[in-house]
Amino acid sequence: MKISIDKGLCKGCGICLSICPKNVYGFSANRNSYGSSMPEAVSESECIGCSLCERMCPDAAINVEEEQKCG
Amino acid sequence: MEPQLAEPSPKGSRKVILQGNEACAKAAIYAGCRFFAGYPITPSTEIIEFLSSEMISVGGTFIQMEDEIASACAIVGARWGGKKAMTATSGPGFTLMQETIGYAAVTETPVVIVNVQRGGPSTGQPTMSSQQDIYQVKYGSHGDYEIIAMTPSSVQEMYDFTIRAFELSEKFRTPVILLADEVVGHMREKVTIYEGEKAIRGGHRNYVVSPQEDFYTGGNCLVEGQLHDEEGMRIGHLPSKSGEFIRSICGKIQNHIDEIQDVQSYFMEDADIAILAYGSVSRSALNAVKQAKGIKLSADEKEGKLRFLKKLVRKKSAEQNPYSHLNVGLIKVNTVWPFPEKQIRRLAAKCRYVFVPEMNNGKYCREIERCLKECKVISLPKIGGEMHSPAELLESIAKEVKEDE
Amino acid sequence: MNRLMERYLRLDALPTLFCAGCGNGIIQYAAISAIENLGIRKDTALVSGIGCSSWIPCYLNMDVMHTTHGRALAFAQGLKLARPGKKVIVFTGDGDCLAIGGNHLLHACKRNIDITVILVNNHIYGMTGGQKSPATPENAVTKTSPFGAYDEPMQGAEIAMSLGATYVARWTAAHPVQLQKSIEAGIKHKGFSLIEVISQCPTQSGKSVYGNKDPAFIINYLKQNSFIYKEGMEEPSGRIKCGILLHDNDKPEYIERMENKTEQYRKRL
To answer: Which of A32, B124, C222, C246 shows its CA 20 to 30 Å from the CA of C164?
Structure first.
């Protein structure tokens, strides 16, 4: 799965970290445009595509997609 | 008074005797109103009762809502659903509707609201007439905005002005108030009405800031009560854009005042005294003017509602006209707002006196005082629920003129 | 950004005015997923009142009417009656719907008119800075209940049921999937549908109701302290009753009744 988090929309609320059943997210050293800590998919390979984070992100910042495999 | 006829529809017309409220309701249907939401309140109730059955006959929708606030909101909602919409009420209900009138003004929604005035304040005088709401109709909601208000004085005008109200509301995308009163709402007169439906064009107006497309037409309109831009996005936090917005919604009325204003004059050509009246009081005023001129009253006027008139006619025919020295004419204001300053100044240019009879504590006279600095403006307020009689008007005028001599 | 929301959001209106961690965005996602899943985007209009949750539809590129405080249902009924074949979804809050809007809720439920209402209950007046709402729990200290709220909170879903609504559900912001499903069911249901969503307001309710402003804490609290209602079960006390609380397909809908009664008169046309 490919996870992207929009820096301009993320407000650093931390919900994604808390509700991911596979603990994919952690806070990164990066800041979003509000200046708060931005999460990142530290264990992206663990992602099962449940898309709970997409539904629970209040700012539509997260996109989870099936990785397109070539060939 | 000559009836003011609306443009005839191709399907023809006929003459009937109608009550004022009924005429208003019939005119709404003719003007293409297909949604009515209302709440019963004396003396407007005949309008809601008539439309509760008649809306169906033209495929329209009627609903009695739980209160006047809901009624006003429902008509705004319905207009965005593409249906011309109207409600009708009186003083207490009109007060309740003020927030929604402001909302209609800010969102630039075309709706028609009928206020059949009664005595106030509060529960006041439910069955008696007044003209006490004349300022409320313009300033009733908080904030800076403009509305258009018309004051019918006959059943024909209840009919014609209602049609015009729909035309003006669509043309300027604004709420328009038909400011009637109990007298004209409940009187019965012969009136010319039209068959079919008048084609009142909607369409995009370039002097309108807010989104204009009906819902469900792909416009993705954001109808917003905060001050907003062309997308409906709020700009209230930006002082200069906010100022622009207010100037725009007010300017679209003020800048088109020549198209909107409707002021009639009778015998004003050489008059040096004017009675300036609106609504049902202008009936008395015209009779007073005709009497002063010794003009025989027409058959219609003799058999009118005003029984004191019959007495006066009988008395007058036996005496010499004691008012013949008064060179008096009538300025009849049909659109009280936006204030037709230019027309009033022009008509009253040669006047030494302008008398303003009103069934309130003296309100519109202040506008007249403000705009006619060169002549003496005399307020003739009358409260209690009775109209000024022509005799009272003539006596007041004669007395004032005599005192000055 | 999220691909689904990208197709629905007014991009130049972003970022939203919602605080970090606000439940409104979660509800917005659930509503959009429902609309997308049913394929009704162009036949749907959104109406809201005043309050934080009333901003949910304003960020969406659809026909939206952002009305006055408490009156969303009155505007929505006018719109629905003008175009009965189209859909209307109302977004309202605990103050907007249960306080100033109470009378309109009463009559809309009573009519059983085919409108779907999403009642976002954050137990407080958030937009104006944290005053008591009719849904604020007893003893909660808010800006207008400095000694603790004196009375019990109103239960929006139960009120709607007793007033005549025919599809009533309650979920929390911690139940996004079930929420989406209930919104779909409410839209499909022919009659008055009300879906109450217990939603976190980390800024105000965090302080006055939950004692913790961390959105993740409140979400977890909502999940742990709710139960899903099933008919006949013994209901645990002190927990939020979630689930489909009522689904009555028998009671006729208002517009249908109006059209039936007036059909013979329309035939005159």
So the answer is: C222
